[in-house]
């Protein structure tokens, strides 16, 4: 579809062409008619139905005594008028062309400004809220490299090479009071005995001798049990998790207790979570089951808030 600029230019050009042709035609007609009159030629045929007047075949000069017609006053040439009209038409053409381009430019600028405002909305991406970080306060820690002060020292729980040793189906408790919201971590390495007997962390022991246990076995298994003074019931367990370090290496166990929710980690990997109906906290300790001996080291107990 032709643009507005092209349409305007076409109209002006057509007007200018017709006007110029008309002016030039009339100018030529005038010149030819005047020249013919001066040379005694008959006037040009104007297309009228009235026949032109006759002229005697006289010599070029009238006879003596015949009154001569006074010469006709000179007619003004239309060439000046034609040139003036041409100049006006050219000026009009230039003015219309420049005006059309200015209008088009103004419309284009306004359209661009509107489009830029529409295409560039103000960013409204929400800023994510900061996640609160749990505050840990260490209440007890011991590497067991130098001593196991205030821990039980007998044939089942004793200070030994490489840590605090527990043997033959016993549990020994840290020399601090009951804990509720708490994080417990310790390294454990089996020294003797079969691979089917678990060992690990006990927590939540109360005055009625009920407690929870997170234990691992050298056969690459883990389990969580709920125990009373006389029996333990398995609440969850896992098979070969592929993260157990065998061959007499240390394995790190971690329990995170927050309210009634428990998380269990092995060597830095979350292996399970468990929720209870009620939990009031209790003492923290280390334990083994069966005829095995395990060395524990790098125990850290921290309150969390």
Topology:
Elements: H1 4-38, H2 79-119, E1 136-142, E2 157-160, E3 163-167, E4 171-173, E5 182-192, E6 199-205, E7 211-217, E8 221-227, E9 232-238, E10 251-258, E11 261-266, E12 269-275, E13 283-288, E14 293-304
Antiparallel strand pairs: 1-14, 2-3, 3-14, 4-13, 5-10, 5-14, 6-7, 6-13, 7-8, 8-9, 10-11, 11-12
Helix pairs in contact: 1-2
How does this structure look, described?
- The chain is α+β, with helices and mostly antiparallel strands.
- It folds into two domains: 1-43 and 76-115; 136-304, Sandwich (Jelly Rolls), CATH 2.60.120.
- The protein has helices at 4-38, 79-119, and strands at residues 136-142, 157-160, 163-167, 171-173, 182-192, 199-205, 211-217, 221-227, 232-238, 251-258, 261-266, 269-275, 283-288, 293-304.
- Strand 10 (251-258) and strand 11 (261-266) form a beta hairpin.
- Helix 1 (4-38) runs antiparallel to helix 2.
- The radius of gyration is 58 Å and the shape is elongated.
């Amino acid at each position: 579809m032709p643009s507005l600029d092209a349409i305007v230019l076409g109209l002006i050009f057509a007007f200018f062409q017709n006007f110029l042709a008309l002016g030039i035609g009339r100018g030529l007609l005038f010149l030819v008619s005047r020249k013919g009159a001066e040379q005694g030629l008959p006037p040009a045929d104007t297309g009228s139905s009235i026949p032109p007047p006759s002229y005697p075949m006289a010599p070029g000069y009238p006879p003596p005594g015949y009154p001569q017609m006074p010469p006709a006053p000179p007619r003004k040439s239309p060439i000046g008028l034609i040139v003036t009209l041409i100049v006006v038409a050219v000026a009009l053409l230039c003015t219309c062309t420049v005006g059309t381009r200015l209008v088009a430019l103004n419309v284009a600028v306004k359209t661009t400004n509107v489009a830029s405002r529409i295409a560039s909305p103000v960013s409204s991406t929400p800023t994510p809220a900061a996640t609160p970080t749990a505050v840990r306060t260490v209440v007890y820690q011991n590497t067991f490299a130098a001593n196991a002060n205030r821990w039980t020292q007998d044939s089942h729980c004793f200070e030994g090479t490489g840590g605090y040793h527990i043997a033959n189906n016993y549990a020994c408790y840290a020399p601090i009071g009951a804990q509720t919201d708490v994080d417990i971590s310790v390294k454990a390495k089996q020294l003797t005995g079969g691979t089917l007997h678990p060992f690990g962390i006990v927590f939540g022991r109360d005055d009625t001798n009920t407690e929870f246990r997170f234990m691992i076995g050298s056969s690459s298994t883990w389990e969580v049990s709920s125990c009373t003074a006389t029996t333990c019931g398995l609440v969850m367990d896992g098979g070969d998790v592929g993260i157990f370090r065998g061959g007499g290496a240390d394995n790190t166990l971690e329990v995170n207790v927050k309210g009634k929710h428990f998380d269990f980690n092995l060597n830095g990997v979350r292996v399970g979570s468990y929720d209870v109906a009620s939990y009031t906290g209790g003492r923290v300790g280390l334990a083994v089951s069966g005829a095995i001996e395990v060395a524990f080291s790098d125990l850290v107990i921290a309150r969390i808030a």
